[in-house]
Write a structure and sequence with these properties.
The chain is α/β, with parallel strands linked by helices. It folds into two domains: 3-160, Rossmann fold (3-Layer(aba) Sandwich), CATH 3.40.50.720; 172-259, Orthogonal Bundle (ProC C-terminal domain-like fold). Helices cover 54% and strands 13% of the residues. It is built from twelve helices and eight strands. The protein has helices at residues 10-21, 36-46, 54-58, 73-80, 98-104, 137-148, 161-170, 172-189, 194-214, 219-226, 232-242, 245-267; strands at 3-6, 29-32, 49-51, 63-66, 88-91, 111-115, 125-131, 151-155. An eight-stranded mixed β-sheet has the order 3-2-1-4-5-6-7-8, sandwiched between helices. Helix 4 (73-80) packs across helix 5 (98-104) and helix 7 crosses helix 12. Bound molecules: NADPH dihydro-nicotinamide-adenine-dinucleotide phosphate and (2S)-3,4-dihydro-2H-pyrrole-2-carboxylic acid. Residues 3-95 form the Pyrroline-5-carboxylate reductase catalytic N-terminal domain.
C-alpha cells in the first residue's frame, strides 16, 4: 500500500516514524506539505518523498491520510475532490466529521475518520476508527493495517464516539505528561536531582500502567493496595480529593470532547 500524508506536522511525523519501524519502506510513503522547512525536516528524518503540490502527491497512492489542522481540512478536501481515483481517504483531524469531509469531496464515500495519539512514534498508539457506510470491508482492513502498524485500534460504530476517543486518548498523552511534570517538580523540591526525579516518575507511571494492564483487578482496588491506613499515600490522596483533582480531570476531559464537537460544528454543516 502506498500512503500519501497531506500535512507533515507532529502527528504525521509520529505515524510515519511508527510505520517505518514496522517495516514500511520510505518508498511507500509520500508527504504533501506546504512549508518548505517542514518538507526538508521530514525528508531528512525519514528519507521519504515530500512534495508541495497535492496533485503530484496523491498520484499513484492507495491511501490518502489527511493530517492538516481541523481549520485547514475543508480547503484540502475540496482540492482533493478532483484527484480521487478510488483511494481510501483517512482523516485524523480532531472533530471534523466524516460526513462533512465526504461532502467537501463531492460525496466521495470511501472515508474513514481516525483518532490516533502521539505514542504512534514508538508504535504504542491507540486509535479510534469510524468508517462511513460506503467503506468496504477490505478498505476497513486497510485502515486497520495502517493505524494498527503504530499501535492498537478500536472501531466505533457511531461517529460521535470519536469525540470521546479524542478527549480520552487523542489528547490523553498530554494529561499523562502533565501529571509526570508535577511528580518531577515535587521530587526536585524534595531534594532529588532532575534525572532522579524523572527516572522515578517515569518508572512509576510505566510500572503502574503495566500492573493495571496485567492485573485482573480494577484500578480502584490497585490504588487501595498502595494506600496503607494512616500512611503516606492516604495523606496524598486525601489532599488530591480535597482539591477536587479527580473532578477537575473528569471536567477537563468533558471539555476536550465538547471542543471536538465544536470543531465539527464550526467547520462542518451536519
Ligand atoms: N498532535 C496530536 O497529538 C494529534 C493530532 N491529531 C490531528 O492531526 C492533525 C494534525 O495535527 P498536528 O500534526 O499536531 O498539526 P501540525 O500543525 O503540526 O501539522 C499540520 C501540517 O500541515 C500543514 N499544512 C497546512 N495546510 C496544508 C496543505 N494545504 N497541504 C499540505 N500541508 C498543509 C501545516 O502547515 P502550517 O503550519 O504552515 O499551516 C502543518 O505543517 C490535526 O487535525 C489534529 O487534530 C490527531 C491526533 C493526535
Ligand atoms: O489538541 C488537539 O486538538 C489534537 C487532537 C488530539 C490531540 N491533539
Amino acid at each position: 500500500m502506498n500512503i500519501t500524508f497531506i500535512g507533515g506536522g507532529n502527528m504525521s511525523s509520529a505515524l510515519i516514524g511508527g510505520l517505518l519501524q514496522q517495516g514500511y519502506s520510505p518508498g511507500q510513503i509520500r508527504v504533501v506539505e506546504i512549508s518548505a522547512e517542514r518538507r526538508e525536516k521530514i525528508k531528512h528524518a525519514f528519507k521519504v518523498e515530500t512534495v508541495a503540490e497535492l496533485a503530484k502527491g496523491v498520484s499513484g497512492s492507495d491511501v490518502i491520510l489527511l493530517a492538516v489542522k481541523p481549520q485547514q481540512l475543508s480547503g484540502v478536501a475540496r482540492e482533493l475532490a478532483s484527484q480521487l481515483r478510488n483511494q481510501l481517504v483517512i482523516s485524523i483531524a480532531a472533530g471534523i466529521r466524516a460526513t462533512d469531509i465526504s461532502r467537501w469531496m463531492s460525496g466521495y464515500a470511501r472515508v474513514v475518520r481516525a483518532m490516533p495519539n502521539t505514542p504512534a512514534l514508538i508504535r504504542a498508539a491507540v486509535t479510534g476508527l469510524y468508517a462511513l457506510p460506503g467503506v468496504s470491508m477490505e478498505e476497513k482492513h486497510n485502515a486497520e493495517a495502517i493505524l494498527g502498524a503504530v499501535g492498537s485500534v478500536l472501531w466505533c460504530d457511531r461517529e460521535e464516539l470519536l469525540d470521546a476517543v479524542t478527549a480520552v486518548s487523542g489528547s490523553g498523552p498530554a494529561y499523562v505528561f502533565y501529571f509526570i511534570e508535577a511528580m518531577q517538580k515535587a521530587g526536585q523540591e524534595l531534594g532529588l536531582d532532575a534525572s532522579q526525579a524523572r527516572r522515578l516518575s517515569l518508572a512509576t507511571f510505566l510500572g503502574a500502567a503495566e500492573l493495571a494492564n496485567q492485573s485482573g483487578d480494577d484500578v480502584a482496588t490497585l490504588r487501595a493496595r498502595v494506600t496503607s491506613q494512616g500512611g503516606t499515600t492516604e495523606r496524598a490522596i486525601q489532599t488530591l480529593e480535597n482539591a477536587g483533582v479527580k473532578h477537575a480531570i473528569v471536567h477537563a476531559i468533558h471539555g476536550a470532547s465538547q471542543r471536538s464537537r465544536e470543531l465539527g460544528d464550526e467547520f462542518g454543516e451536519t
